[in-house]
Design brief:
mainly beta; 3 domains; eight-stranded mixed sheet; 2 helices; 33 strands; 4% helix; elongated
C-alpha cells in the first residue's frame, strides 16, 4: 500500500512535473550580476486558495524589469509565514526567457532589537538631550549586550538602558524591512511577466451558520457565512478567492495545535449566496464570483448560503452507558439531564442540498414579544448533500429522569442480567416525547420491557416514551448482555 507524502512535497512535485521536457529558459554567464527588486505595486493578478486548516495557496503575477544576464531579484510583499520549499517561479512569456539558479528566503527583519544585535561588539553613536544647553550631546558607545536590555560602554564606563537615541553608521546588508524572496536568475529578456506560487500558514477560514426557528420548532431559516482570517503579514488586494472544504492530509513537523475561535456575535441577515460550489478530488471547492481584498490582520465575512422554510425535528434524548449493564450498581441516578437536539436533512426537497463545510451552527428563536433570543450552538462536521445534520442545543429544563437498577445477576465471567427502571418527569403544560437511548455493547437481548424496544444498531436499543403534561412515566426493562 502506497504511503501518502506530505501536501507540501506533493505540491512541489506537481510544480516540477509541469516543467519536465522544457528546454532551459536561459543559461548563466560569467558577467556581473545586476540587482533588481519588485513589490506589491507591480502585481497584476493574485489568487488565493484557502483551506480550512490554517494554510493557503498563493498565486501572484507580476510584471518585473530584470535586464539580461545574471540577475538577483528581490521579491517583496510575500507572506511572513511562507513555506519556502513550496515556492515556484515561472516566466509567462516566450520560452527560453528565465532560469532560476538559486532561491533564498530572507526573514531577518529590521527591528530595533535586530539592528542592535548586528552591532554587538561594534561602536555606534548615542545622543542624549541636555535640558540646560538645549542640544543633543553626542557620545561614542560600544554595544556589549542586548539580552534583557541594552548594555553599552561609554567613556570607559558600563551603562545599561541608556536614556537616549541610537545612531548607526549604516544598515547591515542581511536585514530586510519585510519578508522577501530573493532569486539568482539567468534572464534572456529585459522585461518579463512572472508567476510566483507558494503555500503559506496564516490563512484560514471557517463556516458559521445562523438558524432561526419558528414558534413550533418545526421550520427555520438558515444563513451560512464564511469567515476568513489573514495573519500572513501581507495584504492581498483584488484577489480571486477560492475555498477548499475537506480534511486534506498534511505533514507539518512541529506544528502547534490549532485553537478554536471564540464565539462570534450573531451575523446580519444574509444577502444572496456569492460562492459557486464544485467538486475537487475528494473535497469541495467554493469560488467567490467576484474579486475581493483580504488585508493583513483582517477578518472578513462573506455570505455562503441562504435557505428558508427548512423542515426541522426537535428531539429530547436520554442517554445511558453500556458499562452500567455489566455491573451491580447500588445507587439511584437522580435528576439526570435530557439532551435537546435539532435534526434537519440537507436535501433539495428541504430547500438545502449544498455540501455544508464544517463550522458552528447557532440557533435563535423569537420570544413572546418577538425579540430574537439565542438558544444554543453546536459544531457540525463536513456534511454532504442528502445527509442529516444533528445539533445539540443544551439540556431540557422541565424534563428530567431518574434511573435505578432493580436487580442484577451474574451468569458467568462475561454474562449478566439486569432489570432497570427509568422515571421520566415532564413539568411542562404541553406533552413531550423522549427517546431513551441505551447502548449495550457486545451481544444483548431484551427479555422484557414495559414499552416496545427498537434495535437502533448492533450496539444500541431505544424506547420512544410519550409524556403527558405535568406527569411522570415509568419505563422498565430486563436485558441480558454478553461482552466477551
Amino acid at each position: 500500500m502506497m504511503r501518502f507524502q506530505s501536501f507540501s512535497a506533493l505540491f512541489g512535485a506537481l510544480l516540477l512535473a509541469s516543467a519536465c521536457g522544457q528546454k532551459p529558459a536561459a543559461v548563466p554567464n560569467t558577467g556581473p550580476t545586476t540587482h533588481q527588486s519588485s513589490d506589491a505595486s507591480a502585481t497584476e493578478q493574485v489568487s488565493l486558495t484557502v483551506y480550512n486548516q490554517n494554510f493557503g495557496l498563493v498565486r501572484e503575477v507580476r510584471q518585473v524589469h530584470l535586464g539580461t544576464g545574471n540577475v538577483e531579484l528581490s521579491f517583496a510583499d510575500v507572506s511572513a509565514h511562507i513555506q519556502p520549499q513550496t515556492v515556484h517561479l515561472k516566466s509567462l512569456g516566450s520560452d527560453g526567457g528565465l532560469t532560476v539558479l538559486e532561491q533564498n528566503y530572507r526573514y531577518d527583519l529590521l527591528t530595533p532589537d535586530t539592528l542592535l544585535k548586528k552591532y554587538l561588539g561594534k561602536t555606534i553613536k548615542v545622543y542624549r538631550y541636555n535640558e540646560h544647553t538645549g542640544v543633543d550631546e553626542q557620545k561614542q558607545a560600544k554595544v556589549l549586550s542586548v539580552e534583557g536590555g541594552t548594555v553599552l560602554e561609554i567613556d570607559g564606563q558600563i551603562t545599561s538602558n541608556f536614556a537616549g537615541r541610537y545612531a548607526f553608521p549604516e544598515l547591515p546588508e542581511n536585514l530586510v524591512q519585510k519578508p522577501t524572496l530573493v532569486w539568482l536568475l539567468a534572464s534572456a529578456a529585459a522585461d518579463q511577466r512572472v508567476e510566483v506560487a507558494y503555500l503559506s500558514q496564516g490563512l484560514d477560514w471557517h463556516a458559521d451558520y445562523v438558524l432561526s426557528i419558528d414558534a413550533e420548532d418545526k421550520h427555520g431559516d438558515l444563513n451560512g457565512w464564511v469567515t476568513l482570517k489573514n495573519d500572513t503579514g501581507t495584504s492581498y488586494k483584488n484577489a480571486e478567492l477560492k475555498l477548499v472544504a475537506g480534511d486534506v492530509q498534511r505533514i507539518v513537523p512541529g506544528a502547534p495545535p490549532m485553537m478554536m475561535d471564540s464565539v462570534a456575535p450573531m451575523a446580519p441577515p444574509a444577502p444572496p449566496p456569492q460562492f459557486k460550489e464544485e467538486g475537487l478530488f475528494e473535497y469541495h471547492l467554493y469560488t467567490l464570483e467576484r474579486p475581493t481584498s483580504l488585508l493583513d490582520k483582517e477578518q472578513k465575512q462573506v455570505s455562503l448560503l441562504s435557505a428558508s422554510n427548512i423542515a426541522l425535528q426537535k428531539k429530547l434524548i436520554f442517554f445511558g452507558q453500556s458499562y452500567w449493564l455489566r455491573q451491580q450498581i447500588g445507587r439511584v441516578f437522580e435528576n439526570q439531564k435530557v439532551g435537546v437536539y435539532l435534526h434537519l436533512e440537507n436535501k433539495e426537497q428541504n430547500h438545502l442540498g449544498m455540501p455544508l463545510p464544517k463550522g458552528t451552527l447557532r440557533v435563535y428563536k423569537s420570544d413572546a414579544r418577538g425579540q430574537t433570543q439565542f438558544i444554543g450552538e453546536d459544531a457540525i462536521d463536513h456534511t454532504p448533500r442528502d445527509e442529516k445534520v444533528r445539533v445539540k442545543l443544551g439540556d431540557a429544563f422541565d424534563v428530567v429522569a431518574d434511573r435505578s437498577q432493580k436487580s442484577y445477576r451474574a451468569l458467568g465471567a462475561c454474562v449478566a442480567e439486569s432489570e432497570w427502571e427509568i422515571k421520566l418527569r415532564n413539568h411542562k403544560d404541553t406533552p413531550e416525547s423522549v427517546e431513551v437511548n441505551e447502548p449495550a455493547g457486545g451481544d444483548w437481548e431484551i427479555l422484557s420491557s414495559s414499552l416496545p424496544a427498537t434495535k437502533k444498531d448492533s450496539q444500541t436499543f431505544t424506547f420512544d416514551v410519550r409524556l403527558a403534561p405535568r406527569s411522570e412515566t415509568k419505563l422498565t426493562y430486563r436485558v441480558r448482555v454478553r461482552w466477551c
